[in-house]
Specification:
Rossmann fold, globular
């Protein structure tokens, strides 16, 4: 399969470049800027993209790639800092004192032969840079300009090296997709064969070859990643897969039952349903600290899963739905930012259990997993489902977790989701849910004074969960949800709507 290699110089947009290339049905891989040349040669990409980055090429210790890439004959596209790297390493000049340019600019094409082909004479582009290239290396020519940047795009036709000062990967660059398309198809000659059907076939074949007659186990929460992984692996090896669904007692209304029924009925899955809710709830008894709740749930999960796995004879492999962004994050020098919450799912399992890992989605973004899931015939209901945290409702009850509070929260949450779906806005929202606050307040129902709990409704829009805005759910829908919750859920007499964005708030309340 054709690949485009993206060397990461620390730009906030690097993953976006990778996604845009994949949207063109071309496999893209992200590696650090110092990825050794020998490995690049081994990978044999059809093209290399040098990402943007916050550095200046003249800075001491500025990130620079192995210079041999420029002699390799592999087509190269430098974006922003990537362009400055090309100019700097090949004998051009970069001006450090140039005025920084941030925001929209009008690009005028001067040479529409290859990179700028079929994008029109004039289009909008997004600039975000301080330094800029002032003298081109020998053999290079400008191919487009803006008012502020006489050298907004360049090429060396003979060496197949190109560069753009703007960001083609962001939506504000109106012809960005076409420009990247020109690079990967016209210049690099990629076939565009990165498609869900091909991925499923190839991956199923690889899994079968690796697993042979052995047994694979897979923890299946009902979330998208683990569900699609289980169905794909079952496609490859049938009942040699043992999927395990553990009810941890903090799932949503009827969730465990529905998940198990759906996959047994529609995929004839070899699925073990383990109801461990009592064990979890016992350990959570009286615990109010959010981090403690997370740890208890994570550790208990490992305990329960280990026991179940032990009973499945000869299990040698453990399947997990790890995604590409996690892989990129863990391989980069940048490291994750300060830990705000421990996101504990099945982390730690492989080390404890000494199983070999199968991670079919190590190279996939979330939207690609969804496409694969659809191609495998999994229903939209499961594929489009909002993310749900591993510690479940335990981190949405802002006090100790009791069966009574769980019952209240499940009912309220169910009403909220039902109404959002009924009004057709479920898929416009990244995540919507109810939170039970440990706050009782006075109300009046009939002629009676009440003193009951408060439910907070949270709905956010987001691209990736890293940042989020509160969703502007229409008032009439909120009114209906509030009316139904107060009327139908015993123990609640007040409903509030959370209008905080992330940052500075987080999506979950704990
Ligand atoms: P926060 O609350 O950190 O959440 O803004 C960002 C995204 O992560 C989900 N989340 C979790 N997911 N285990 C998970 O699997 C966790 O412990 C956990 N905590 C938060 C959250 O639902 C949102 O999608």
């Amino acid at each position: 399969m054709d690949k485009i290699l993206i060397l990461d110089f620390g730009a906030q947009y690097t993953q976006l470049i990778a996604r845009r290339v994949r949207e063109l049905s071309v496999l893209s891989l992200v590696e650090n800027f110092d990825f050794p040349y020998e490995k690049i040669a081994e990978l044999a990409p059809k093209g290399i993209i040098l990402s943007g980055g916050p550095s200046s090429v003249y800075q001491v210790g500025a990130p620079l790639p192995d210079k041999r890439i420029f002699e390799s004959g592999i087509p190269i596209l430098g974006i922003c800092y990537g362009l400055q790297v090309i100019a700097h390493l090949l004998g051009g000049e970069v001006d450090r004192s140039a005025h920084q340019e941030f925001g929209k600019a009008i690009l005028v094409v001067d040479d529409a032969k290859d990179l700028m082909r079929d994008i029109g004479d004039v289009s909008k582009v997004w600039m975000s840079h301080a330094d800029k290239v002032t003298k081109l290396p020998q053999g290079f020519a400008p191919i487009a300009h803006t008012d502020n940047s006489p050298i907004a795009a360049v090429k060396s036709e003979q060496r197949k090296i190109f560069g753009v000062q703007f960001h083609p990967e962001v939506v504000h660059t109106s012809k960005g997709k076409e420009i990247l398309g020109n690079f990967v198809f016209r210049i690099c000659g990629c076939a565009g064969d990165w498609k869900p059907g091909n991925f499923i076939e190839e991956t199923a074949r690889d899994i079968k070859a690796r697993v042979g007659n052995e047994t694979v186990i897979c923890a299946m929460s009902g979330g998208v990643d683990s569900a699609v992984a289980a169905v794909l692996i079952q496609r490859a090896i049938g009942n040699q897969l043992h999927a395990v669904h553990i009810d941890n007692g903090v799932m949503r209304k009827d969730e465990s039952r529905n998940v198990v029924e759906y996959f047994k009925k529609n995929f004839d899955m070899n699925l073990h349903h383990v109801d461990a809710s009592e064990q979890f709830l016992k350990k959570l008894h009286g615990v109010t600290d959010p981090e403690k709740k997370r740890k208890i749930i994570g550790n208990t999960f490992i305990e329960v899963f280990e026991k179940v796995a032990h009973d499945i004879k000869g299990a040698r492999f453990l399947a997990q739905g790890t995604l590409y962004p996690d892989v990129i994050e863990s391989q980069s020098h940048k490291g994750p930012s300060a830990k705000i919450k421990t996101h504990h799912n099945v982390g730690g399992l492989p080390e404890v259990m000494k199983l070999e890992l199968i991670e079919p989605f190590r190279l996939l973004f979330k939207d690609e997993v969804r496409q694969v899931g659809r191609a495998l015939g999994i229903s939209d209901d499961i594929i489009d489902r909002h993310p749900f945290p591993g510690p479940g409702l335990a981190v949405r009850i802002l006090s100790d977790v009791t069966p009574e509070k769980l019952e209240i929260l499940r009912h309220a949450d169910d009403i909220f989701i039902e109404e959002i779906k009924r009004h057709g806005i479920y898929t416009d929202i990244w995540q919507a849910f109810a939170v039970l606050l440990p706050v009782q307040s006075v109300g009046v129902m009939g002629d009676e004074r009440t003193y009951e709990y408060t439910i907070a409704l949270r709905a956010v829009t987001s691209e990736d969960g890293m940042t989020a805005d509160w969703a502007q759910v229409p008032y009439d829908i909120l009114a209906r949800v509030s009316g139904r919750i107060i009327n139908e859920v015993r123990g609640v007499n007040r409903v509030v709507y959370d209008i905080s964005s992330k940052p500075p708030s987080t999506i979950e309340w704990e």
